[in-house]
Amino acid sequence: MSAYADLEGRLEQVRAEIRRAGGTDAVRIVAVTKTHPVAAVHAGVSAGLVEFAENYADELVPKAEQVLDQGLDVRWHYIGAIQRRRLRHICRYVSVIETVSREVELESLSDLGYEGELLVQVAPSGHPTGRNGADAEQVSVLVARGWELGLNVVGLMGMALPGSLQSTADYFAQVRRLGEDLHLREYSMGMSGDYQVGVAQGATMVRLGSALFGVRGDARATKEQ
Ligand SMILES: *Cc1c(COP(=O)(O)O)cnc(C)c1O
């Protein structure tokens, strides 16, 4: 029996939770397959999923290659920190990059002729500065720069710090407000532990790993992106 035999049931539960949180069936479920083999993608496709995500280029590329070889039609999202020297490879396979946080990344994407969708990742306040998102004050500048370069910036991504439900809700609400001021249409907010909060605050997509595929065994999974 497949290791992912209960995926359909889990997906049903997730959809019910999304409705309970005030979302509709239009909320996109992005299945995070990191640390899982290609069998997870197969199970996802069988269950009706079309969007999948990885957060390491080294894991995305071989998996996306296998999926292509096997003739599966999926849309990949990249949700990890952007390493510019890996960007060329990432661009070849993905339809959505959710983790833009610096102007140089936009410039590289433009140089590479990337035509997929882009989201700017917004760091929660109090986040150590670095690779996990742009400060809220920089978001409008980044979005404008992306548009100026002719890139398809369509939304914002939020990844909450561990904390209270209230602080997570406040952060997601801030992300949504920032995006609405810019007339953006996509909001990727919520993972297995907080997607109901994301949906309640207006997420249009949620990124789910363990809620769909079970707990990851790989130590890398606990490392920050
Ligand atoms: C791993 C990961 C997820 C999914 O995490 P789960 O808690 O397993 O749902 C979502 N977003 C990002 C950026 C991730 O790295």
TrEMBL record:
Residue ranges that the Swiss-Prot or TrEMBL entry lists as coiled coil: none
Record keywords: Isomerase, Pyridoxal phosphate
Molecular function via GO: alanine racemase activity
Record domain Alanine racemase N-terminal: where: 19-216
Domain of life where this protein originates: Bacteria
Enzyme superclass (EC): isomerase
EC number: 5.1.1.1
A Pfam family annotated for this UniProt entry: Ala_racemase_N
Family: Belongs to the pyridoxal phosphate-binding protein YggS/PROSC family.
The protein's name: Alanine racemase
The species this protein was found in: Ferrimicrobium acidiphilum
Lineage: Bacteria, Bacillati, Actinomycetota, Acidimicrobiia, Acidimicrobiales
